[in-house]
Every structure is written in C-alpha cells, then in structure tokens.
Amino acid sequence: MTRIVLIHATRVAMAPIDDAFKRLWPDAETISILEEGLSADAASGRVDATELDRRINVLADYAMDLAPDAILYTCSAFGAGIETAAARLDIPVLKPNEAMFEAAVASGGNATMLYTFPLLWRGWNWNSPKRRHAATQMRR
C-alpha cells in the first residue's frame, strides 16, 4: 500500500483532501500532519520567510520518520520551503497546485488563476526557466 503523508497548514483543508483520496485513490494510506501556526504566522507577519521555510523542512523531516512513499503539502503558500524539501529528499514532495499548473499549460489557450492567500507568490520562483515558461503559456 502506498503511504502518503499530507502536511496541512489549515484545518479546513483536511476533510476535502481526505474525501478526495477516499474517492480517487482508496488504496492509498494517508497520514495527516496539521501545523496551523504556519498560516497564522505567515498571515500575521510574526515570522519571516526564512523561518517559515525552515519549519516546512522540519515538517518534511518529521514526515520522513513515518516512512512515506511521498509527501503532499496541501497549502501552496509555502512554495519555496516545499521546493527546498523536495530537492533534498529522495521521495516525491509535492505542492497541491503542481498538477493544476501543468494541466493549465498543457491545455493551451487562456488560463485564469485565483489565489486566496497572498503569501503564495512569495514561494513562486519566477526566475526559473520552467516557471517563466509556465507563466508565459498561461498569459497567452
């Protein structure tokens, strides 16, 4: 059985994601980790981006102790930290919006994106060739 660790920054994300896994991948075993301080501290500015990225990586290390086949962060607002974790771990570490962006770019034409948490763009590396290509494709 495939084991996926889900790392949540908000409680409201948990039920919809659990429901989606039960419906779309019922054989997967999911384990949830909730750290609500991430969203609260990001929104309030209580800690800086470096500290948030560090905490994202601490969560990834904790998740690795659970012997997962993959880690899925369910909040895309912490992209830079998630990308750091993905680069250093030997299992897939994913952001929730990766597949959506790939599908939008692959579909061609215009795409509209709505975001609800302004911190999202802090983690979006506009300078990477992959991201520049995706942004260009989505603007067409």
Low-confidence stretches: 119-124, 130-140
- Overall strand count: 4
Give the number of helices. 6
Q: What is the element string, with H for helices and E for strands? A: EHEHHEHEHH
Major sheet description: 4 strands, parallel
How would you describe this protein?
This protein is an alpha/beta fold. The protein has one domain (3-139): Rossmann fold (3-Layer(aba) Sandwich), CATH 3.40.50. The protein is built from 6 helices and 4 strands. It has a 4-stranded parallel beta sheet, sandwiched between helices. β3 (70-73), α4 (79-88) and β4 (93-94) form a beta-alpha-beta unit. α3 (49-64) crosses α4 and α5 (98-107) packs across α6 (129-139). It is globular, with a radius of gyration of 15 Å.
Question: Which features would summarize this protein structure in a list?
Answer:
Rossmann fold; disordered C terminus; 6 helices; 4 strands; alpha/beta; four-stranded parallel β-sheet; globular; 140 residues; single chain
Short note summarizing the structure:
With 140 residues, the chain is α/β, with parallel strands linked by helices.
Secondary structure elements and pairings:
Layout: E1 3-8, H1 14-24, E2 29-34, H2 37-44, H3 49-64, E3 70-73, H4 79-88, E4 93-94, H5 98-107, H6 129-139
Parallel strand pairs: 1-2, 1-3, 3-4
